[in-house]
Specification:
- The chain is mainly α and 81 residues long.
- It has a domain at 1-7 and 24-58.
- Helices cover 41% and strands 0% of the residues.
- It is built from one helix and no strands.
- It has one helix at residues 24-56.
- The radius of gyration is 24 Å and the shape is flat.
- The termini are far apart.
Length: 81
Amino acid sequence: MIGFSAGEGTDFSRTCVSLSGLSRGDLEALTERLLADNAALKPAVADRRAEVAALKGVPGRPAIRPGGMGPKTEPQAGEQR
């Protein structure tokens, strides 16, 4: 198995892995590990972006609610489209 982690102090310049020599099981395990590492890093990146914005004095990202289908509007009586 490949000893590969994205923890504190990870040196990404030396994480070259030859994928062609890995079995399917090893590739699946590596993929799961990379997806988990990526999911763990996303909140840290968002925190850093917010911190940089605060240090620059720029407002952070706006709180945008997800869009959706609002209630449909009916035409008023006697109104044509």
